[in-house]
């Protein structure tokens, strides 16, 4: 306890770090207050929102702003969608690849394109959201006036959330966009614990305590999955500059992450899981089989749903790892820097070796990611409330763990720069954004 108090004193004794933490808390407070401001022209008590499937996941990310018809109802999600689209285009189209290699000017152009695409995505999602989520009985004005005004308000709200995220990144602690998503998720955690405690009652207090212990071990498992790496040794040859030999015999490591895809496979798989139920419901009136399929895949606790969900996660893990980690580029960078893997020739053989290692570690990583994704369904089956079960795995847990690790890593860097002790005795904290040492 004394070490913890001393660490807090060291953190707030650094003026820059103290200012950044206070700025982060201020921006987060503004974001949370905005999520309670309802769109004008609507009666929120008449909303009949059903938090199921992908819509329920969005409501979790946005801290309930989606179901409240808030001015931040879409939050930062359109920006996330636009960023993913630009990232995929960067990997597929030479025009975007060239722009990415132009340095700071290219990065500014990509950011500008992402912002414009964010407005377009918000416009499309806003119209769909208002049409499908807000019923006529909840409106205080005509539908046309409400739609036109609310679309502009939703676009402004999304751009303001994006601005808050950028300000947190520049003047706060951690990655601002990820921080806003995490805050939305964490904001529902106290209520979920209370609901679970109330459902168990005083007669089942021991079961409630065991559930909290199980949650602790699940979080530790998610931390292990997030930080697990396969370290490939790299040897650097001697370089002669003038009459001096420099860099001789240096050995570093290439950290290949077991879960290089992060939470993206779960998000992609979750987005597709409504398709079987949607397609089957079209033929439900004429086919008993289609009716059964629609019923099975409309519930996330059925074994058929979770088997398909797990398979999709495994497939998307390999797909996203393949497009996000380029063994050929890593091998070329190592060759230009005078580095090589002991026993492996530089160039194509190094690329093939890295690809083989990636395939071997991605499969167990994909299996573990699939298990984490279906844990909420298992928790619901054993009697937990759905709100509390969502914190036992899935996207919510991985996002929270990743953001907390990134933030703690940045705080620890400030402490070590000022010659203070780090946050951990056993070693430095590793976040998701750790660069590859080549």
Global mean pLDDT: 82
Question: Which structural category fits the helices and strands?
Answer: mainly alpha
E-strand count: 5
The CATH architecture term of the largest domain is Orthogonal Bundle
Strand content: 5-15%
Shape: globular
CATH superfamily membership of the largest domain: SecY subunit domain
Please give the CATH class of the largest domain: Mainly Alpha
Flag low-confidence runs: 434-438
How would a crystallographer describe the biggest sheet?
3 strands, antiparallel
Number of domains: 2
CATH topology of the largest domain: the name is Preprotein translocase SecY subunit
* Annotation field: number of helices: 18
Order of helices and strands: HHHHHHHHHHEEEEHHHHHEHHH
**Approximately how much helix is present in the residues?**
55-70%
Determine Rg (CA atoms, Å).
Answer: 24 Å
Task: Describe the model.
The structure is a single chain. This protein is mainly alpha-helical and 438 residues long. The protein folds into two domains: 1-187, SecY subunit domain (Preprotein translocase SecY subunit); 203-438, Orthogonal Bundle (Preprotein translocase SecY subunit). Helices cover 66% and strands 5% of the residues. It is built from 18 helices and five strands. Strands 4-1-5 form a three-stranded antiparallel β-sheet. A two-stranded antiparallel ribbon has the order 2-3. A hairpin with a 2-residue loop joins strand 2 (239-241) and strand 3 (244-246). Helix 8 (176-186) packs across helix 18 (394-417). The longest helix is centred in the last third of the chain and has 34 residues, at 348-381. The chain is globular, with a radius of gyration of 24 Å. It comes from Arundinibacter roseus. Belongs to the SecY/SEC61-alpha family. Keywords: Cell membrane, Membrane, Protein transport, Translocation, Transmembrane, Transmembrane helix, Transport. InterPro entries: SecY, SecY/SEC61-alpha, SecY_CS, SecY_dom_sf. This is Protein translocase subunit SecY.
């Amino acid at each position: 306890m004394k070490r913890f108090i001393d660490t807090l004193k060291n953190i707030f004794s650094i003026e820059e770090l103290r200012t950044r933490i206070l700025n982060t808390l201020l921006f987060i407070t503004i974001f949370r207050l905005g999520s309670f401001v309802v769109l004008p022209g609507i009666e929120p008590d008449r909303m009949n929102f059903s938090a199921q499937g992908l819509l329920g996941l969005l409501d979790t990310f946005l801290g309930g702003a989606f179901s409240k018809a808030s001015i931040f109802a879409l939050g930062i999600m359109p920006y996330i969608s636009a960023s993913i689209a630009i990232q995929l285009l960067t990997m597929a189209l030479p025009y975007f690849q060239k722009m990415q290699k132009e340095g700071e000017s290219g990065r500014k152009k990509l950011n500008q394109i992402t912002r414009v695409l964010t407005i377009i995505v918000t416009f499309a999602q806003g119209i769909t959201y208002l049409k499908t989520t807000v019923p006529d009985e909840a409106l205080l004005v005509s539908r046309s006036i409400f739609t036109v005004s609310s679309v502009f308000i939703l676009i402004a709200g999304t751009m303001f959330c994006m601005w808050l995220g950028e300000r947190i990144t520049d003047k706060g602690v951690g990655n601002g966009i990820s921080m806003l998503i995490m805050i939305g998720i964490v904001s529902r955690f106290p209520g979920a614990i209370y609901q679970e405690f109330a459902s168990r009652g005083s007669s089942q207090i021991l079961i409630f305590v065991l559930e909290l212990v199980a949650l602790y071990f699940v979080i530790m498992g998610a931390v292990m999955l997030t930080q697990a790496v396969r370290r490939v040794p790299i040897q650097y040859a001697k370089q002669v500059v003038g009459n001096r030999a420099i860099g001789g015999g240096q050995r570093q490591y290439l950290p290949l992450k077991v879960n290089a895809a992060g939470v993206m496979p779960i998000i992609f798989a979750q987005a597709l899981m409504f398709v079987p139920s949607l397609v089957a419901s079209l033929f439900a009136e004429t086919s008993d089989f289609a009716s059964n399929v629609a019923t099975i895949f409309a519930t996330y606790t059925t074994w058929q749903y979770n088997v398909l969900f797990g398979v999709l996660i495994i497939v998307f893990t390999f797909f996203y790892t393949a497009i996000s980690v380029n063994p050929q580029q890593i091998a070329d960078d190592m060759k230009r820097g005078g580095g090589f893997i002991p026993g492996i020739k530089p160039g194509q053989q190094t690329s093939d070796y890295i690809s083989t290692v990636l395939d071997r570690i991605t499969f167990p990583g994909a299996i573990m990611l699939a298990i984490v994704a279906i844990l909420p369904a298992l928790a619901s089956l054993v009697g937990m409330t759905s709100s509390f079960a969502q914190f036992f795995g899935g996207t919510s847990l991985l996002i929270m763990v990743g953001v907390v690790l990134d933030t703690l890593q940045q705080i620890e860097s400030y402490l070590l720069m000022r010659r203070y002790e780090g946050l951990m005795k056993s070693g430095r904290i590793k976040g998701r954004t750790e660069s590859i040492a080549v």
